[in-house]
Fold this protein.
Amino acid sequence: MQQNNVSLWSKDKSLDCMLFFAQRVNELLFHHTTDTYRIPALSLRGLAVEYCAVYKDAKKGIINAKNLKHIIDEFNDRLQKDPIATDILSLEYVDRFDKSYGSWDVKEQFENINYIGRKLSNLAYYHAVVKKLHALIIENKEKKLIDRLTTIWVREVIDCGYNENYVFKMLHNMFFHNEVSSIDCIDQFFKTFDFDNKKFDVFIGFSKNMDVVKNLFEKIRIPTINISVLKPQEAPQGIKTKLQQTILKIENIQAYDMYSAYEIAYEIAACVTESYSFFRHDGSPVNTYGQVVCEDKTIVRIKPKHLLKYRVSSLSQPDSGKKAEGLLQVLFSNMKNQSDVRKIVKIHNCAIKSENINDALISLWSLMESLVDDDISKPKQNSSEQADDKSEDSKYKSGNVIEMLIPFLKSAYVYKLVQTFVADIIHWNREFFDAHISNNGFGTNDVEHAFAFLTFDALQSDRDALYASTSDYPLLKNRVMVLYEQLHDSKKIKATMSEHEKRIRWHFHRIYRARNYIVHDADSNDELNHELLINLHSYIDTAVLKAVELINASPYNDNIMDVILEHKLEVSIFDEKLEKQENEDISEDNALKYLYYDYER
């Protein structure tokens, strides 16, 4: 998370929840926020749309109808936790849905979800979320509910048509670049999103001479939009022309914000350039430079979309050389590992560098499928857990990819939460970390010290010291409170892990559906697939890192499949122990086994 500049904020305590809201919105939208704290890929309304689309595609035979169970289970889980949707639909209806949907056939499920989607559409859901959020922020209370509703609001405002870069820009303009002295700022911020179309002129500069397609651009006829091709010297005053040989001018684009206007213009331009390239077969890259002129004549420069290679740059670790040594040790340990690890490295690195979201997603999923042995791919999971490929072998393999990765993601989850906290608190105040966390006498590394800080009852005074020091950083203060609540005893950890596993299972099925739409129907949702790609890459990195550690620590001549099977068994053993044992507080005697999700610690 980023603390941001709050030097212009009044010290008035009545603004505490508004500051928490602003910092949480920033975290949800910041590109390098860990996936646990970023905006969800889909809203409740988005899940309704997804179910209805998959239902129709299943009827056409495009995709397997078994996918509908994963979606409706996730939909109901989200619906039961959503107070705004409950108010709109009524508590009685939401209870009825929970009790009955499992017995409905898919047609009745579709009719009910379609009904819910309609009830939440036309900005009814959005405005209800804003109304509740506004009231809570004014009353300056219930940060836990503000957190949940802020996550819903960010996803909704984007789904309703605003570009996430615009939301991020308006957030910073309102709360971090200007004086904030009154609660009225929250009114001004929400009023920024009025859902009125504005007119924009968009300039797209090309690093190559595009005279060859000038005639194609000029033949495009779109009502209300004017298109012209300019030489750099013909560009209006204020439009930058450096490194550009041809400039496309698209006038009178209607959109909610300048970033959305640019995306519309870029799609128009891409239709022309891609049609020409289809027959030209010219694969050489062309850089583009975007500039948008707003109604008030201000000019906004638009940077290229963030590809995977940029989004994952923050994951680069200072000890990458040491980790590479571990990878090389595995690679040369036996012939099987040499083949498998070399394949993993090559496909992973190509996916990161890829300019195409869909190619990268298919590559990373295929990478995981290639590691699943045919002999262990045959039916173990029940039919509801099988993926939907038309090939039976691929169906079993895809299901086993999920079963293969989940143990790694479960065993790494608590560690990941604490590791993220360590980075956040060191970024905030290294001196506090050294004084209250790194010297608390438990563990041998920063993450172990921090886990004790977050969970031991004996260290409550240190947590109180943090609470007293974070008046201008309520997001960090609240995060510590939430992590303590999630992790301070075995019962809470069990519940946290159960929720995490449930979410990632649904997400895996969504990723695989996206893969199948690309492969079988040449169809894709680029915005959604971009987020899914980020998640899949994170999952693979987590699994490979753990597999490398296990192989190098093993007394046997293990290959990757050996450790996959062993780790799956060990995680299931710990799950069983956690299920059967009495609840216990986290303490020096048991902390490491919960941090590493390892019953032998």
User: Anything to note?
Assistant: The chain is about 60% helix and 5% strand. The radius of gyration is 26 Å.
